[in-house]
């Protein structure tokens, strides 16, 4: 990376990933790491979305689940639309995706990151109780909050779109962000307020709120089990969000405020942590959130049962799929019924011989114990 900042701009930064890197190791390793994070994170977020959709269809939804589903959708968008752009950039080492993607890639990624933080912050107002089916009065504020969050998230990073442009570099082209000196005073104030309002303040508020709520639920609530577990999950999500996004916001503010450029390794590490944050969220939900963990087990049983339909029908060792609903007695009764039905065609040899002998036995007239019945029939 051998590009110096021009004299007539207040800051100079690459857009869509660091370009003009030297070395084949970085060119090969970074796309592989980003693709691995994208695949694992996309699968996890899709599973979380399927579980939440199933809960809402079964009447087990809540306001927290609705917001967490929106959070999983945002993570899915970041992994599927933003991370591949960085993977291609690190592989090509120059910009090959055109002027439109150059102008919008950092703006769109920052919009998703800000929306993700604000959505998680809005869970502090959400209720953990199950929503009443066919009732739209309780979650109405969620729709309005999500619309407001996305509008604000798309407006605040607009300078990322305004200052991005393509610059020729020899035979190649690079995508950079250049801010002219005439706008340095206003933008210097903006880049101090923007990270504080969209990252620092929400994360501090969430961690403080959930810590206080968890302490109160454990020590003062009459039945703290469910509420404290959900609060602990949200606290962990807030903590992971703050730790993984801190390097990205730190390097972003460092460059925009006109200080010396941070090391390239720190910039790359910050970008990897940003995408790792979107992959860690479903892991936390699957391991700590009871409803998500139970839904994952149910989806596994459903997939296993559907796969067993393709087995041969004459296989006597074929196992029945376990029931996902009902108590233990019902499951045991079903297993017993299946075992009995599987042996209906089998008969004990001694009993079969006994009944066959009884059907073929001819009773002699002399040995008939009730001869008067025979006489009546003859009459």
Give a verbal description of the structure.
This protein has 379 residues and is mainly alpha-helical. It has 12 helices and 3 strands, in the order βαααααββααααααα. A 3-stranded antiparallel beta sheet has the order 1-3-2. Helix 6 runs antiparallel to helix 7 and helix 7 packs antiparallel against helix 8. The longest helix has 36 residues. The protein starts with 8 loop residues before the first strand and ends with a helix.
Give the helices and strands, then pairings.
Blueprint: E1 9-14, H1 24-57, H2 63-92, H3 98-122, H4 140-155, H5 158-162, E2 164-169, E3 172-180, H6 184-219, H7 225-256, H8 264-288, H9 290-308, H10 328-342, H11 349-359, H12 371-378
Antiparallel strand pairs: 1-3, 2-3
Helix pairs in contact: 1-2, 1-8, 1-9, 2-3, 2-8, 3-4, 3-6, 6-7, 7-8, 8-9
End-to-end span in angstroms? Answer: 120 Å
What proportion of the residues form beta strands (DSSP E)? 5-15%
Low-confidence stretches: 322-337, 339-348
State the oligomer: single chain
Structural class: mainly alpha
Q: Helix proportion of residues, in percent?
A: 55-70%
* H/E element order: EHHHHHEEHHHHHHH
Widest sheet: strand ordering = 1-3-2
Q: Could you tell me the radius of gyration in angstroms? A: 33 Å
The average pLDDT score comes to 79
* Strand element count: 3
Largest sheet: 3 strands, antiparallel
Q: Helical segment tally?
A: 12
Task: Give the overall shape.
Answer: globular
Keyphrases for this structure?
3-stranded antiparallel β-sheet, single chain, mainly alpha
């Amino acid at each position: 990376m051998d590009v110096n900042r021009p004299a007539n701009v207040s800051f100079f930064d690459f857009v869509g990933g660091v370009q003009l890197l030297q070395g084949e190791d970085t060119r090969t390793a970074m796309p592989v790491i980003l693709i691995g994070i994208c695949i694992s994170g996309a699968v996890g977020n899709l599973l979380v979305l399927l579980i939440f959709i199933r809960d809402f269809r079964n009447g087990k939804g809540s306001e927290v689940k609705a917001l967490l589903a929106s959070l999983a959708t945002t993570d899915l968008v970041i992994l599927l639309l933003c991370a591949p752009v960085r993977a291609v950039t690190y592989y090509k080492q120059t910009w090959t995706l055109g002027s439109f993607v150059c102008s919008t890639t950092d703006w769109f990624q920052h919009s998703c990151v800000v929306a993700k933080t604000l959505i998680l912050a809005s869970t502090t107002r959400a209720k953990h109780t199950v929503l009443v089916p066919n009732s739209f009065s309780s979650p109405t504020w969620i729709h309005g909050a999500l619309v407001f969050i996305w509008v604000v998230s798309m407006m605040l990073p607009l300078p990322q779109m305004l200052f991005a442009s393509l610059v020729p570099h020899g035979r190649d082209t690079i995508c950079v962000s250049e801010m002219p000196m005439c706008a340095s005073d206003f933008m210097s104030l903006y880049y101090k307020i923007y990270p504080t309002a969209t990252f620092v303040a929400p994360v501090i508020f969430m961690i403080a709120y959930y810590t206080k709520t968890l302490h109160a639920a454990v020590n003062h609530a009459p039945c703290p089990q469910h509420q404290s577990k959900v609060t602990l999950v949200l606290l962990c999500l807030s903590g992971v969000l703050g730790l993984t996004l801190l390097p990205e916001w730190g390097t972003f503010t460092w460059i925009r405020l006109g200080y010396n450029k941070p090391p390239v390794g720190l910039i790359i590490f910050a970008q990897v942590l940003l995408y790792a944050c979107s992959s860690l969220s479903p892991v936390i939900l699957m391991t700590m959130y009871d409803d998500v963990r139970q839904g994952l087990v149910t989806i596994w049983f459903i997939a296993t049962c559907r796969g067993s339909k393709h087995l041969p029908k004459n296989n006597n060792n074929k196992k029945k799929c376990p029931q996902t609903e009902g108590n233990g007695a019902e499951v045991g009764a079903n297993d017993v019924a299946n075992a009995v039905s599987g042996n209906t065609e089998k008969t004990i040899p001694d009993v079969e011989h006994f009944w066959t002998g009884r059907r073929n036995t001819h009773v002699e007239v002399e040995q008939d114990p009730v001869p008067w019945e025979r006489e009546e029939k003859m009459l």
